[in-house]
Amino acid sequence: MKKLQLLSIFFFLTLFVSVEAYSQEVGIRFGNFSGNNVAVDGVFALGEFSRIHADVSFGGGGVGIDALWNPIFKPVGSSDFNWYAGFGPSLFLGDPFTLGAAGEIGIEYAFADVPITIGADYRPVFVIVENTRFVGDGFGFNVRWRFGPND
């Protein structure tokens, strides 16, 4: 338990340091997510083209948490759209408890005049614990408020 606490402190300190140079985003995600259809959505930049995309959903008999690393975050040609891909753990704290590995691919648009980012993504999950299965219906629409510079 102590290792988990130290890891959590290190993670949040790393995120805090990255706030200075890159924009962070907080908003909501609509779509299928751990037995619910709405989640709190956040993006925490780790560098120019790397970030953590996290979601927390309340409802559906528990709390769903995804924390996905997006090592690929690039512009679509010369347009103002960005696409991203990533992977990470997916957890549902409820009945039944589930733990799995999620993938993600999406596209988003950051408005230049207002600090709002909208996006759409596909997030399949391979559930490992409690009952092994593949869940492929994780489509979502994101609306987030951007804090910091528009990258």
Proportion in helices: 10-25%
The helix tally amounts to 1
Strand portion: over 45%
Regions with little confidence, pLDDT below 50 for 5+ residues: 3-8, 15-19
Strand order of the largest sheet: 1-2-3-4-5-6-7-10
Q: Sketch the major β-sheet.
A: 8 strands, antiparallel, barrel
Q: Give the averaged pLDDT, no decimals.
A: 84
Tell me the number of strands: 10
Task: Write down the secondary-structure element order.
Answer: HEEEEEEEEEE
Content-based structural category: mainly beta
How far the N terminus sits from the C terminus, by CA atoms, comes to 37 Å
Radius of gyration: 15 Å
User: What spatial form do the alpha-carbon principal axes imply?
Assistant: globular
Layout of helices and strands:
Elements: H1 2-19, E1 24-33, E2 36-47, E3 50-59, E4 62-75, E5 81-94, E6 98-110, E7 116-122, E8 125-129, E9 133-135, E10 139-147
